[in-house]
Amino acid sequence: MGAMSIWHWLIVLVIIMLVFGTKKLRNIGSDLGGAVRGFKEGVKEGEKAASAESQQKADSGRTIDVETREKS
Known about the structure:
The protein is mainly α. It has a domain at 22-55. The chain has 2 helices and no strands. The radius of gyration is 28 Å and the shape is rod-shaped. The model has no long low-confidence stretch (mean pLDDT 83).
């Protein structure tokens, strides 16, 4: 009785559906999916910001030689 079989999981799922209802479970699932999606976007934005910052640090050490012209 240490491991739960598929029948145990099905019974637990049926009880949860009876207690909460399918509409509330669907809302919880969509909210969870939105949270995961937001987390992934935040991680991607953090990586972009870190790479832009490291690029900026690498560029700040260079000397750029330019000529200036007067406006005519």
